[in-house]
Specification:
Structural class: alpha+beta
Distance between the termini: 53 Å
CATH topology of one domain: Arc Repressor Mutant, subunit A
Order of helices and strands: HHEHHEEHHEEEEHHEEEHHEEEE
Bound molecules: zinc ion
CATH superfamily of one domain: Winged helix-like DNA-binding domain superfamily/Winged helix DNA-binding domain
Number of helices: 10
Largest sheet: 4 strands, antiparallel
Oligomer: single chain
């Protein structure tokens, strides 16, 4: 099998030239003007971007034309690379306008039972115990998704997006770069989880580790079982579903090939989900608890 990494194909000179043409606050102003008000004709763009001198404006616009901005029928608009550059412009890690979030969640620490807290800073969301050192979850959320929402809406959007990211990784698509990502169940890691599903991207080095349960939220048997018990997977954030953040009751059914059983219990019924070494579902069955 031939292995190619994105990094080895990179034309660093071209990338440096592209960054170079962005490295000027006048040009950033033009991109932002097109993002907020565009597409715009020359003179309007000059006004919105805040230039008095059209020669000066024209010079900077020229540096962006082609790669970041295009002109059609006398109107300027952002190209795809210009929209991507806007993502960077609004990234608070560059602008230094971090609006952090820190609040209690309606969920308990899988290790000690104390409440969990969510903390957002520099694009990273941490869900951790308020009392012991357990870090339940660490994830990335684009700062623009934070900047445009209040705290409640942000956490809601984060919860909705993240389980999809994790199930996407499970399907072999890296949620960060869309490259190739492989998932394996790790046995006995040095972590509060005893059988985490860990996905490693072959193209961007991103690593995602979660309870196996969190990878099951797109499985039809799991979705159906929860629905039958009054839970739609989007109705509550994944950290309120214990099997998504804790794997205390998961067990190894077989070592070779690896089979791990994740029980999901609701109202006296248990869905037993058996997964393989890639955390892929191989079997599900419902067991009614006899009391
Ligand atoms: Zn704790
Ligand atoms: Zn990747």
């Amino acid at each position: 099998m031939s292995e190619r990494s994105a990094a080895s194909d990179l034309d660093t000179e071209r990338v440096a030239a592209a960054f170079g043409s962005l490295a000027d606050d006048s040009r950033i102003a033009i991109l932002v003007a097109l993002w907020t008000e565009g597409p715009l004709p020359f003179s309007e763009l000059q006004t919105v971007a805040g230039f008095d001198d059209s020669g000066h404006f024209n010079y900077h616009l020229d540096q962006l034309l082609g790669q970041f901005v295009e002109k059609e029928s006398e109107v300027y608009r952002l190209r795809a690379a210009g929209t991507k550059a806007i993502d960077i412009v609004f990234d608070e890690r560059f602008a230094g306008s971090a609006s952090t979030v820190d609040r209690e969640l309606d969920a308990d620490c899988p290790a000690c039972g104390e409440g969990l807290r969510a903390h957002y800073e520099d694009g990273l969301v941490e869900i951790a115990c308020s009392d012991c050192p357990v870090l339940v979850h660490l994830g990335y959320f684009p700062p623009r998704g934070r900047a445009t929402r209040d705290m409640e809406a942000f956490l809601d959007a984060y919860a909705r997006r993240l389980w999809r990211d994790f199930t996407l990784a499970q399907e072999g698509v890296c949620p960060h770069c869309s490259g190739r990502i492989d998932t394996r169940v790790e046995v006995d890691p040095d972590w509060h989880l005893s059988l985490p599903a860990v996905s490693r991207c072959r193209d961007c080095e991103v690593t995602i580790g979660t309870a196996i349960g969190l990878r099951l939220l797109a499985d039809p048997a799991v979705v159906g079982f929860l629905y039958d018990h009054g839970i739609r997977v989007d109705d509550r954030p994944f950290w309120e579903l214990a099997f998504c953040i804790d794997d205390d009751d998961a067990w190894i059914e077989r070592e070779d090939p690896l089979r791990v059983v994740v029980p999901i219990e609701r109202d006296g019924e248990t869905l037993r989900v058996t997964v393989d070494e890639h955390a892929r579902v191989v079997r599900t069955n419902v067991v009614t608890d006899r009391r």
